[in-house]
Design goal:
Its EC number is 2.7.7.14. The protein has 15 helices and 13 strands. The longest helix has 17 residues, at 333-349. With 373 residues, it is an alpha/beta fold.
Amino acid sequence: MELNVHVCLHSYDMVHYGHSNQLRQAKAMGDYLVVGVHTDEEIAKHKGPPVFTQAERYKMIHATKWVDEIVEGAPYVTTLETLDKYNCDFCVHGDDITLTVDGKDTYDEVKRMGRYRECKRTQGVSTTDLVGRMLLLTKSHHSNVDNADYQLHKDNFGKGPKGHSPWTGVSQFLQTSQKIIQFASGKEPQPGDTIIYVAGAFDLFHIGHVDFLETVHKQAEKPYVIVGLHFDQEVNRYKGKNYPIMNIHERTLSVLACRYVSEVVIGAPYAVGKDLLDHFKVDLVCHGKTEVFSDTDGTDPYAEPKKRGIFRVLDSSNNLTTDVIVQRIIENRLQFEARNQKKEAKEMAVIEWCCCGFTFLIINGRFICVSCK
């Protein structure tokens, strides 16, 4: 049987659940998904500095469960030559526009030749928005979009000199049961599976989390990994500052997209107690080398699994944390602010308004209505 092979190319300058949703949709269009990931140099040239390094981004995309193969150092402009080189029938991208440094559509050639397909962008998330959240770090950035500080964030990080872009601006992510079903594996534990439980915030899901979960996955021949995600208020209690950056709904999709995860407990109790262990028939409880904070009553949240002899501390050999990522953003604040403004300005430069009241694009002299196309 001939496989329908297709490629999805993107910067993935900061891998988030919006990218994962794009990959999920892309995989559904064919049989085998090849993902091209650009180098740091290419992203810096066309968009601005990436949040994650290319090595981190390669590994993050590879860990996304819908991906079959990745192409490292993929060219920023997609050509027919690139598709043919990797035996791809067509390429897929979101319905947001991607422009080169000089404002040209990066998919123009493959669009003209009928080898381009489009998937829906995930509303409510963008790298621009997440970078803005990290730069702002208001207490309510993940729970109250009507807050004055958050509105200021929208104005500062989602607005160019000519107004707001429909792709870069901030909008609130709205979780649905259907979206969770789309991301979930739907697989129940099978006889002989080793049920492994881990818990945490898994905020700004990153390569440090991926390396840890991969290490967890390797603890058994047939692992069934359950991740317990703590509610936002609980994360804020033990992490302090203004964490989490991403709310519980966003973190749920981020973790579900990982190929090493079988199930997620949304709003898991902080203490890993008898009821939880018995309900899921947990064989092993794991935790990384990071600090374990006491429960609200001062007790050890892992007392019960330790008592049962099923607690294990794992070293993934990756010291990247959410704090480190936020620090990267803060240290390069001016660069990232300029990056967001630059991206917005490029998008606004190709936007005009159609007589039907919707946006249309002017690309290489051609008018393309977002509504009428």
